């Protein structure tokens, strides 16, 4: 059986992209893998987070994992900062990763924007911490959205360089990303060329997991489209990013192939498609949002799950870190 690690940052409103690209898959993989799912609070503070909001958001993400069907008894659900081995291995990886590799990371370029001088050192080092999150468990597979593919490649490069530098072939596994489903990169509802994101200032750009039926309906009604009828073919859809995005969302929520959705709505008006999409989104997301709200009213329960999860995680991480320390030559007299 392979081992899975994946994480979500407590940086704000969980949205449809997080759900379809990652969290829904977490639950779908849990019968075939040993799973570790963490709320990556240490990644979150690479950009400023209000401390009170951070703690509440950490519980909220954990509640979302459970609401999406992750079994917190069978698998480890925890927050990253509770397992210090992540940070300890990250330092070693800071010394393995090359500046040239980090300089190619597109997420850093996007998040840093023009004001490079003024972003945190942590934002730059983020992918090395992510590699540590994964390799501290020697995880073999990582379910993520398409946007994290480049960071997974960096993780593999770090594993290969560590194994070579220290002459320990096969010490770290060459981890595989698991990017699957019809919506591996959900785009903003306001701009079909931009990723749907927690940190987008416009709430109309995303559907949040906690949105009620009215909010979902309003956001889909306002979602950007073009003046033409629905695309007739896949190649037509590809040229129209806003339409293509909505079709992908429909396909993912309905568990259909995108081609079948295109066929079903070919040549119809967007208004008709949008009302079908609204019904589908409300049906599929409503129960998840409701379960999240219920869990958030019981923070004691969520905290117990996180605590037990961290213990399970540390039991795996501690011996691997000890091996790494020995390999690197850290003295432990
Ligand atoms: P932030 O804007 O703070 O980076 P985010 O929305 O990108 O937030 P993350 O916590 O960085 O969320 O990512 C959590 C998981 O959700 C990752 O696996 C990521 O690949 C996935 N994900 C994020 N955005 C999307 C999206 N638009 N479509 C599909 N998957 C996504
Ligand atoms: Mg992100």
UniProtKB/TrEMBL annotation:
Annotated function: Catalyzes the attachment of tryptophan to tRNA(Trp).
Enzymatic reactions: tRNA(Trp) + L-tryptophan + ATP = L-tryptophyl-tRNA(Trp) + AMP + diphosphate + H(+)
Pfam families with a match to the protein in the record: tRNA-synt_1b
Localization of this protein: Cytoplasm
Protein name per its UniProtKB record: Tryptophan--tRNA ligase
Binding locations of L-tryptophan: 133
Subunit (UniProt): Homodimer.
EC number: 6.1.1.2
Motif range ('KMSKS' region): 195-199
Keywords annotated in UniProt: Aminoacyl-tRNA synthetase, ATP-binding, Cytoplasm, Ligase, Nucleotide-binding, Protein biosynthesis
PROSITE patterns named among the record's database cross-references: AA_TRNA_LIGASE_I (PS00178)
InterPro entries, per the entry: aa-tRNA-synth_I_CS, aa-tRNA-synth_Ic, Rossmann-like_a/b/a_fold, Trp-tRNA-ligase, Trp-tRNA-ligase_bac-type, Trp-tRNA_synthetase
GO CC annotations on file: cytosol
Similarity annotation: Belongs to the class-I aminoacyl-tRNA synthetase family.
UniProt-listed GO biological process terms: tryptophanyl-tRNA aminoacylation
EC class: ligase
């Amino acid at each position: 059986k392979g081992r899975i690690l994946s994480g979500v940052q407590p940086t704000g409103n969980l949205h449809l992209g997080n759900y379809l690209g990652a969290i829904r898959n977490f639950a779908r993989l849990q019968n075939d893998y040993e799973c570790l799912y963490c709320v990556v609070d240490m990644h979150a503070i690479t950009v400023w987070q209000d401390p009170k909001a951070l703690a509440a958001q950490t519980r909220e993400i954990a509640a979302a994992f459970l609401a999406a069907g992750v079994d917190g008894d069978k698998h480890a659900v925890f927050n990253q900062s509770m397992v210090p081995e992540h940070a300890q291995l990250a330092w070693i990886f800071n010394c393995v990763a090359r500046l040239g590799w980090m300089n190619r990371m597109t997420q850093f370029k996007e998040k840093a924007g023009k004001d490079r001088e003024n972003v945190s050192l942590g934002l730059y080092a983020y992918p090395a911490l992510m590699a540590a999150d994964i390799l501290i468990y020697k995880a073999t597979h990582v379910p993520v959205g398409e946007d994290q593919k480049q960071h997974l490649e960096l993780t593999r490069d770090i594993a290969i360089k560590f194994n070579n530098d220290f002459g320990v072939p096969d010490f770290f596994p060459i981890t595989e990303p698991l990017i699957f489903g019809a919506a591996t990169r959900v785009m903003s509802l306001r701009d079909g060329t931009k990723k749907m994101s927690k940190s987008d200032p416009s709430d109309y750009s995303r559907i949040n997991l906690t949105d009620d039926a009215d909010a979902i309906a309003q956001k889909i009604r306002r979602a950007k489209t073009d003046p033409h009828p629905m695309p007739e073919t896949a190649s037509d859809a590809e040229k129209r990013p806003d339409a293509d995005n909505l079709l992908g969302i429909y396909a993912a929520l309905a568990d259909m192939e995108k081609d079948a959705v295109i066929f079903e709505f070919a040549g119809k008006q967007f208004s008709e498609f949008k009302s079908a999409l609204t019904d589908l989104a409300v049906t599929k997301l409503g129960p998840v949002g409701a379960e999240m709200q219920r869990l958030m009213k019981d923070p004691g329960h969520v905290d117990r799950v996180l605590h037990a999860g961290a213990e399970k995680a540390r039991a795996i991480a501690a011996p691997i870190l000890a091996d790494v320390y020995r390999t690197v030559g850290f003295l432990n007299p």
